[in-house]
């Protein structure tokens, strides 16, 4: 199977949002820590960028192929980058130097090895469409035209889902799935949010923290479900999903910008990792806004 960029992104999203998330949830329960979720997220986020680079390198090969040994090497490089950033800089949700090498290697290695084994074996037999279409899990959506002239034109050419819309949908889907896992885990294990307080003798304070944790968890689950629905809607070219996605993107950019302003004006030095993550968040959602505003024809044509 010769992967395409869309195929790489779809495969990575599917694997990390299912098998990877299940493994991460197992680690979180076993080690009683939520640190594994942001690690998985950043592996996914940087992986999307790596995929674009790997596709460019793949185009330089005479057969345009990407054999298993290259995949193994890419896995080592991706993991090394995330670990080095965590160790020397820190990332949003992960304090600088807070994840030891042995723990990172155990978690990342387990996720990578099991997903690699699944993709190289059972997935090839169970998902022939994926195997023979460059790693894509779903066919390109053909839009429904709104006029006879458009119908004739679309019959000849077809309106494909723009890659920028697919990428935007993946951001919402992965964010929603990760948020769901975090919210559910927080409902089951509120001590993961503020364990020291909940273990204290101050029963009133502990109870207030439990209630706050429950509220945060419920809000997280509700918003995460909305993100997942928006991601699915964008994949299907739904107009309502486009409107909601624009609103969510604007709100995210607004609050992230306020956080940057607050960090710049506060006398306390801000964490470099958090600042980097906030800047990346603003940049990503700005790109999503551009994608949504420049894809009117796709959404209009799909629903006529």
Describe this structure in a few short sentences.
This protein has 304 residues and is mostly helical. The chain has helices at residues 5-31, 36-58, 68-88, 101-120, 122-126, 128-132, 148-157, 163-188, 191-198, 203-236, 239-265, 272-293, 296-303.
What does this entry look like structurally?
- The two termini are 36 Å apart.
- This protein has 304 residues and is mainly alpha-helical.
- It has 2 domains: 137 residues, no CATH class; 165 residues, no CATH class.
Please specify the SSE layout and strand pairing:
Layout: H1 5-31, H2 36-58, H3 68-88, H4 101-120, H5 122-126, H6 128-132, H7 148-157, H8 163-188, H9 191-198, H10 203-236, H11 239-265, H12 272-293, H13 296-303
Helix pairs in contact: 1-2, 1-4, 1-8, 2-3, 3-4, 8-10, 8-12, 9-10, 10-11, 11-12
Order of helices and strands: HHHHHHHHHHHHH
Distance between the termini: 36 Å
Give the tally of structural domains.
2
Work out the strand percent.
under 5%
Low-confidence stretches: 141-147
Mean pLDDT: 79
Count of DSSP helices? 13
Determine the fraction of residues in helical runs and give it as a percent range: over 70%
Q: Given the C-alpha coordinates, what overall shape results?
A: globular
- Structure classification: mainly alpha
Oligomerization category of the chains in this entry? single chain
Number of strands: 0
What kind of sheet is the major sheet? Answer: none
Radius of gyration over alpha carbons? Answer: 21 Å
């Amino acid at each position: 199977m010769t992967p395409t960029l869309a195929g790489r992104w779809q495969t990575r999203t599917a694997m990390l949002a299912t098998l990877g998330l299940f493994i991460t949830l197992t680690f979180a329960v076993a080690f009683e820590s939520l640190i594994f979720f942001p690690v998985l997220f950043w592996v996914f986020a940087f992986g999307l960028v790596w995929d674009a680079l790997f596709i460019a390198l793949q185009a330089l090969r005479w057969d345009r192929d990407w054999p298993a040994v290259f995949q193994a090497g890419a896995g080592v490089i991706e993991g090394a980058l995330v670990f080095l950033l965590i160790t020397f800089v820190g990332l949003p949700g992960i304090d600088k130097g807070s994840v030891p090498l042995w723990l990172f290697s155990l978690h990342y290695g387990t996720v990578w090895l099991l997903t690699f084994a699944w993709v190289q074996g059972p997935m090839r037999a169970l998902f022939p469409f994926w195997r023979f279409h460059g790693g894509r899990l779903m066919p390109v959506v053909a839009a429904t035209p709104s006029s006879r002239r458009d119908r004739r034109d679309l019959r000849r050419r077809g309106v494909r889902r723009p890659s920028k819309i697919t990428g935007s949908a993946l951001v919402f889907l992965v964010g929603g799935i990760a948020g769901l896992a975090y919210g559910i885990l927080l409902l089951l294990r509120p001590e993961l949010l503020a364990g020291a307080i909940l273990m204290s003798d101050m029963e009133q304070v502990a109870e207030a923290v439990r209630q706050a944790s429950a509220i945060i968890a419920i809000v997280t689950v509700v918003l995460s479900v909305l993100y997942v629905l928006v991601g699915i809607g964008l994949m299907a070219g739904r107009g309502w999903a486009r409107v909601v996605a624009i609103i969510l993107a604007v709100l995210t950019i607004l609050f992230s910008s306020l956080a940057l302003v607050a960090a710049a004006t506060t006398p306390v030095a801000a964490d470099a990792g958090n600042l980097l993550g906030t800047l990346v968040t603003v940049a990503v959602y700005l790109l999503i806004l551009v994608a949504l505003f420049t894809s009117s024809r796709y959404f209009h044509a799909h629903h006529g």
